[in-house]
Specification:
The complex is a heterodimer. Chain A is mostly helical. Chain A has 14 helices and 2 strands; from the N terminus they run H-H-H-H-H-H-H-H-E-H-H-H-H-H-E-H. Chain A has helices at about 5-15, 20-35, 35-50, 65-95, 100-130, 130-140, 140-150, 150-160, 165-180, 180-195, 205-215, 220-230, 235-240, 250-265, and strands at about 160-165, 250. Chain A has a two-stranded antiparallel ribbon with strand order 1-2. Chain B starts with a strand and ends with a helix. The chains are: A mainly alpha, B mainly alpha. The interface of A and B includes residues 40, 50, 55 and 78 of A.
């Protein structure tokens, strides 16, 4: 320990007489050989000297006029805070005493909430990333199903203007797929049941099944037959060819039309 | 008064102080506490407020007191902590510090304080004022108030080494600032 850097942090303490005997001796030995450090020590000594000689500030006596009274006020407000703190501590203590019950309840809530959150988180990217047109173009039936289950994206999808030709051709294909795949049929039925009609009521599972049945029965031939009756003639391959390419249509309009047609009959 | 003797301190004394005793403690310590707070925060009103809070906290925690020596350190411990919190809050609100001549000569009308009005000492106080709260408290307790390192550690509730470290940093900062000021002057 010979260089000035080793003594750097000790010089100020040496000047203030804060070191033990051994450290003091070491620093003193170094100072005999180093004038730069001696200079620093002198500066530190001047500072500590000036500081120790600072006269204590005189305070006006008026400052202490209501001193006791003001302390009492502070005690009162401090007691209020203390009571509030005790209240919080009491609540924590009560919870602690019934910790088994609290832990069991918390676990139950977690068990219920986590799957819900996970499902939401898991499916949300699909919902947010694509719109109805994209899903129909990709023929992503499961994506459509999940989107229709979520109220926000369902509303968006129902009111999104889609090229009529795309809508009808996709729905036609969907009808064929769902006939072979009961999972998609049930999913579709479930999604349809959540749609609200103009009177604000949901279609319900029963009615959505009926509508689905109606749409399903519109095969190529039945569409030709139905087009002459009161059934919506637009859901048929025959009608599909005649649709204006620029025509846009909303899913909601289509479903409501189907529903109203059925009610009229 | 039912008491039980236990190494010369009775239970009654150990557990609680009476209002009369509290008033005496306030009377005994009020000037020194306000002065210490003034040194730390540099404002008479704040100093008075903080000192009063220290007394209020003493009363609210009165069962902890053992004897006069403990009361002395306990009061200063509370006060210095309050002051450090106050300074930290101020630092957050006002990051820039300008040299304010009035701040260091406020209500120092007494002829005894002519010394403090001298340029050098004012500058010295200003340098201390710009230190970090913990360093400021350390240098004020050790060099201005004349507490020993152990006493300073006791009041600041830290180790002796911690005090020495802060003390060195504080003195080093003050020395550098004073050097710069002297060079400019």
């Amino acid at each position: 320990m010979n260089s000035c850097r080793d003594f750097e942090s000790l010089l100020s303490l040496f000047a203030g007489n804060d070191l033990d005997i051994e450290q003091r001796a070491n620093v003193a030995a170094h100072l005999t050989t180093c004038s730069a450090c001696r200079q620093k020590v002198t500066e530190y000594e001047q500072i500590t000297n000036h500081l120790s000689k600072l006269a204590s500030p005189t305070l006006p006596e008026t400052l202490f006029a209501d001193f006791h009274e003001e302390i009492r006020n502070k005690i009162t407000s401090g007691e209020k805070t203390q009571k509030q703190m005790f209240g919080i501590i009491a609540v924590i203590h009560a919870f602690y005493r019934r910790r088994r019950l609290v832990i069991a309840t918390a676990t139950l809530i977690m068990m219920m909430a986590v799957p819900m959150l996970l499902t939401r988180y898991f499916h949300s990217p699909q919902e947010s990333s694509s719109n109805l047109t994209q899903l129909l173009e990709k023929r992503d039936w499961m994506g459509l199903y999940y989107a229709m289950l979520d109220s926000k994206s369902r509303t968006n999808f129902l009111d999104e203007p889609v090229a009529a030709q795309l809508l009808y051709s996709a729905l036609d294909e969907l009808m064929k797929v769902q006939r072979q795949d009961p999972k998609i049929r049930l999913g579709l039925q479930h999604a349809l049941s959540k749609i609200k009609t103009r009177d604000g009521k949901s279609l319900g599972l029963g009615r959505s099944a009926q509508i689905l049945g109606k749409i399903t029965s519109t095969g190529y031939e039945s569409a030709m037959r139905l087009s002459r009756t009161s059934w919506d003639p637009e859901i048929s391959l025959l009608a599909l060819r005649q649709i204006d390419k620029n025509k846009k249509m909303k899913l909601r309009e289509l479903f409501l039309k189907t529903n109203i047609e059925r009610n009229k009959r | 008064m039912k008491t039980q003797n236990l190494t010369n301190i009775t239970y009654e004394e150990k557990l609680e102080i009476s209002e009369q005793e509290f008033a005496e403690i306030v009377e005994r310590h009020q000037h020194s506490l306000v002065r210490l707070a003034f040194r730390l925060v540099g404002n008479v009103e704040d100093a008075k407020d903080l000192a009063q809070w220290a007394f209020a906290k003493l009363w609210l925690n009165r069962e902890r007191l053992d004897n006069e020596r403990i009361t002395f350190y306990y009061l200063r411990k509370i006060l210095v902590n309050l002051c450090i919190d106050h300074l930290r809050q101020q630092d957050r609100q006002k990051p820039d510090v300008e040299f304010d001549e009035n701040k260091f000569s406020s209500d120092l009308s007494n002829p005894q304080h002519q010394l403090e009005k001298q340029e050098l000492q004012k500058q010295l106080l200003f340098c201390i004022d710009t230190l970090k709260p913990k360093q400021k408290a350390t240098i004020l307790l050790r060099d201005v108030e004349g507490y020993s390192v152990e006493e300073t550690a006791n009041v600041l509730e830290c180790t002796k080494n911690n005090v020495l470290c802060n003390l060195h940093l504080a003195r080093e900062n003050v020395r550098r600032k004073m050097q710069r000021w002297l060079a400019n002057a």
